[in-house]
């Protein structure tokens, strides 16, 4: 591969202040360049079953993505999320207490100097680049659809009573269509994957301020979770941060 990328990463999930159980799951596998956040729903511990299944199934499929072309890697991610969807949906059919369970899934792979993200639901991926925080993914949510249609402003969407209603999730139906995002990683980039337990509590400019004030992923993860909890911690909070330290280009196309 013509690029060698070095990065530092950290991740953690927290039950929050209000909930008694944690239905979020996450995967941090820097050795494979794989990072996943999943926010389960369904009650009676079914949400945590769905998110755990998504993380395990998708994570297992993505372990061998590094080194593949964008189009091939994107197809692996899409298929992995669809496979997770099928297996979770199957459990909702055969296990009475699992009916209605599902999960968001935001899965990121760092593949050389490229990133690929597969997404279903409203867990988000952001990148902080050159002082600007950009939301890479787009929520599959009722309020996002209303914003897209011009019926709500982004500000109204944040405080709308249906702000946590998602329109697409993994496991609720026999089929699902993941969105795939592909782009370049640059030295100094800071990627953030988070469940809505973070983004529902903090505005993007508040997230930006915290990300700019911290240079180490570990302490930053803790600060983001602490701030979400300080604001009320209404939901489980899961955060992964990946800092791109160096991007080395090899002219001959061979890594050392």
Can you characterise this structure?
With 256 residues, the protein is α+β, with helices and mostly antiparallel strands. The protein has one domain: Phosphatase 2c, domain 1 (4-Layer Sandwich), CATH 3.60.40.10. The chain is 32% helix and 30% strand. It is built from 7 helices and 11 strands. The strands form 2 sheets. Strands 2, 3, 4, 5, 6 and 9 form a 6-stranded antiparallel sheet that branches. Strands 1-11-10-7-8 form a 5-stranded antiparallel sheet. Helix 1 runs antiparallel to helix 2. The longest helix has 25 residues. The termini are close together. The model has no long low-confidence stretch (mean pLDDT 93).
SSE layout and pairings?
Blueprint (H helix, E strand, L loop, with lengths): L2 E12 L9 E6 L4 E8 L4 H17 L7 H25 L7 E2 L1 E7 L2 E7 L3 E6 L2 E4 L6 H7 L5 H6 L19 E6 L5 E5 L1 H4 L4 H10 L3 H14 L6 E13 L7
Antiparallel strand pairs: 1-11, 2-3, 3-4, 3-5, 5-6, 6-9, 7-8, 7-10, 10-11
Descriptors for this entry?
single chain; Phosphatase 2c, domain 1; 11 strands; 7 helices; alpha+beta; six-stranded antiparallel beta sheet; 256 residues; globular; five-stranded antiparallel beta sheet
